[in-house]
Amino acid sequence: METEYPVQVADIVSARKISVVVPLYNEEVMITPFHTRLKKALDSSPWNWEVIYVNDGSTDRSRLILEGIRNNATNVGVASFTRNFGKEEAMSAGLKLATGDAVVIIDVDLQDPPELISAMAYAWASGADIVNMKRLERHGESWMKKATAHIFYRLINRISDVPVPADVGDFRLLSRRAVDAINSLEERNRFMKGLFAWVGYHSVTLEYNREPRFAGTSKWKYWRLWNFALEGITGFSIAPLKISSYVGVMCAGMAFLYAAYFFLKTLIIGDDVKGFPTLIVTVMILGGLQLMAIGIIGEYLGRLFIESKRRPLYLLENYRAPLQDHKK
Ligand code: UDP
Ligand code: MG
């Protein structure tokens, strides 16, 4: 990704600060290798930078290690949650705490190379508000995960009200005004990929190859991914509600035709007691469809219930901000 930028860009950049937001949960083995690589990449770039680690209720030594790093650096902030709230919540917290002119969200497991941050920042300095990072290849991930991710992105794009860029994960850069826009959204359903797309603004997409996880294991089990997908779909589309009402209309229409058919048949050739299979099949299909429709309504109602309680998204146990701005 070697791109030549005009000299003027290099001049403007030096005054600007990039905040790197890193959500993490039980990643004790990853933190030090990640920080070393991040520091190396950003110290040799023209940008001022800070990093905000959001410890999402880790139960291992993650917090200790983070505090250690913070004690030896002026541009490291560490926020700790009172328990595990989830990656979306951790990212939301990071976006609130970051003070930079642009914010980059990155995973701690080195699947997203920190060396690309500088290129993202150049794209931002040249006018982009959002820099999406599109994964060309996802090394070290099972075909099942890639296939489900593929289907998910296609599906959500088909039905969502805003286009969610395909194969773009959470690794991305947001300008200050895009971050402020996200921070002003009060909803509890934090499907961040959708929220990022919702704010609009001028976005550019860079491509990269996703590395395998450096160490540790993925925190995303399939059940969790399924729930995440539901969150995405119900948060950004009411298509399922519409589909279920159309299916209802179709079924009622078919039932009506069927009734007319029986009515005429009885008039013309009389009634016999046959037809039990049709009856039971119809009853079961209708029963199933009704339950499905109620279930879909339930998914939305449940989320409405959660929204209406207006609980905070997360609770910070403490936040130690970076000591001072790290000026180049
Ligand atoms: N993560 C988090 N809270 C969670 C689960 C994950 O902050 O409840 C962090 C995790 O530590 C990592 C990032 O989110 O920095 C991505 O997680 P992971 O690598 O497990 O997901 P994958 O790359 O497999 O999608
Ligand atoms: Mg990962």
TrEMBL record:
Coiled coil: none
Gene Ontology CC annotations of this record: plasma membrane
Domain Glycosyltransferase 2-like: 19-180
Transmembrane segments: 243-264, 276-301
Protein family (similarity comment): Belongs to the glycosyltransferase 2 family. GtrB subfamily.
Chief location of this protein within or outside the cell: membrane
Protein name: Glycosyl transferase
UniProt membrane topology term: Multi-pass membrane protein
GO molecular function: glycosyltransferase activity
Keywords: Cell membrane, Glycosyltransferase, Membrane, Transferase, Transmembrane, Transmembrane helix
Pfam families in alphabetical order: Glycos_transf_2
InterPro entries xref list: Glyco_trans_2-like, Glycosyltransferase_2, Nucleotide-diphossugar_trans
Classification via SUPFAM superfamilies: Nucleotide-diphospho-sugar transferases
Signal peptide: none
Protein localization: Cell membrane
